[in-house]
User: Which sequence fits this backbone?
């Protein structure tokens, strides 16, 4: 992306590149509606509410000049941001309102394991996969995002297809416990972005520790972004990610608009 911008006037160069189409904006956000898939929690846990709109006025006696709705949803519905305090290991690492804004605009890279996930819905990303990726593409971005493409976004229109559950629980791709620990403790990234309903694999309740992506990454003060779309349109490297959760005081997370800035020609 640096070839598009002027070193003397980087903000002016960015504005010009955006206006001319030299830099494209790719929306990575899933549509938020009552049919947006939501994670099914065990019966001993409070369920996550689906997204709902409550009509308050629509150019009628309730407000003749306006249309407006109330919003009812969980923090972790649709494309959403996980703050560290979402998990017990990150309880003292900050809520969604505490996230420094400089960490919400950062470089991003993509690792593509969609073919492997098509063959095995329980496919797990390993440290070895990431080391191989780095040999080919260079180091993971310091303070940036690792975006994990699994092809799962193609299922996001349907709750059952997306969760892919049977009597043994959900079957969706994720990362190994060792990979989660490595990303948290040894990699320079600020967060992990995925296409699935959460940052952990569907069977992660059977791992040690349970739900290791949450356990390790949030425990290290890092972040998660889930239910991303259009990762197939991004280059392997060279993306700038903009993650915009609501600034909810005390919030453990928030629905988010997630955008990618990509130099023209880098979009697939």
Assistant:
């Amino acid at each position: 992306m640096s070839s598009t911008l002027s070193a003397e006037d980087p903000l002016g160069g960015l504005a010009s590149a955006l206006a001319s189409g030299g830099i494209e904006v790719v929306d990575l956000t899933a549509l938020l509606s009552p049919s947006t898939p939501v994670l099914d929690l065990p019966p001993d846990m409070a369920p996550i509410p689906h997204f709902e709109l409550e009509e308050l006025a629509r150019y009628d006696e309730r407000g003749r000049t306006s249309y407006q709705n109330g919003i009812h949803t969980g923090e972790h519905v649709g494309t959403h941001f996980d703050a560290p305090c979402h998990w017990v290991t990150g309880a003292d690492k900050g809520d969604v309102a505490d996230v420094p804004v400089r960490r919400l605009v950062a470089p991003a890279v993509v690792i593509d394991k969609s073919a492997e996930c098509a063959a095995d819905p329980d496919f797990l990303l390993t440290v070895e996969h990431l080391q191989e990726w780095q040999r080919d593409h260079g180091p993971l971005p310091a303070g940036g995002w690792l975006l994990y493409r699994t092809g799962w976004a193609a299922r996001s229109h349907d709750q059952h297809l997306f969760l892919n559950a049977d009597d043994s629980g959900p079957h969706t791709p994720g990362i190994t416990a060792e990979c989660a620990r490595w990303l948290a403790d040894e990699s320079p990234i600020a967060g992990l972005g995925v296409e699935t309903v959460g940052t952990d694999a569907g069977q992660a309740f059977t791992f040690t520790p349970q739900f290791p992506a949450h356990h390790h990454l949030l425990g290290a003060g890092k972040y998660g972004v889930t239910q991303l779309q259009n990762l197939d349109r991004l280059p392997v490297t060279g993306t700038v990610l903009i993650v915009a959760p609501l600034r909810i005081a005390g919030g453990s997370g928030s629905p988010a608009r997630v955008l990618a800035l990509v130099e023209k020609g880098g979009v697939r």
Notes: The chain has six helices and 14 strands. Residues 10-20 form the longest helix (11 residues).
